[in-house]
Amino acid sequence: MPYAVEISIADPSSLDEENMLPMYLLPDMFDTVADAKDAAAAHIAGLGRDPATVIFAVTDHNGLTIVTSVEAAR
Fold first, then answer.
1. 36 CB-near residues (< 8 Å, 6+ apart)
2. Which residues contact 48 (CB under 8 A, 6 or more apart)?
3. What is the DSSP letter of 20?
4. Measuring CA to CA, how many Å separate 65 from each of 15, 46, 59, 62, 74?
5. What is the pLDDT of residues 37-63, one digit of tens each?
6. Phi, then psi, of 35 in degrees rounded to 5
7. What is the pTM assigned to this prediction?
8. Would you say 20 and 72 are in contact if contact means Cβ atoms under 8 Å apart?
9. Distance of alpha carbon 72 from alpha carbon 31, whole angstroms
10. CA–CA distances in Å: residue 28 to residues 17, 33, 52, 67
11. CA dihedral for 23, 28, 34, 39, sign (positive or negative)
């Protein structure tokens, strides 16, 4: 089953970033939840911002949320 990763920016830190969409999907689909979580973590690390200001959600092909970074941190 393919999984998607949705990224949410909670707190834009500069005026330029306010023009960014606060929520977007990564362009790739992933075969497993673990692959999707790894891709989300790598993407967030590459943003150069406080990871606490970025939330990810892994969704299935129906758009149902499987896991979020909030749940994964528990």
1. 3, 4, 5, 30, 58
2. none
3. S
4. 30, 23, 4, 9, 16
5. 999 999 999 998 888 899 999 999 999
6. -60, -40
7. 0.81
8. no
9. 18
10. 23, 13, 23, 17
11. negative
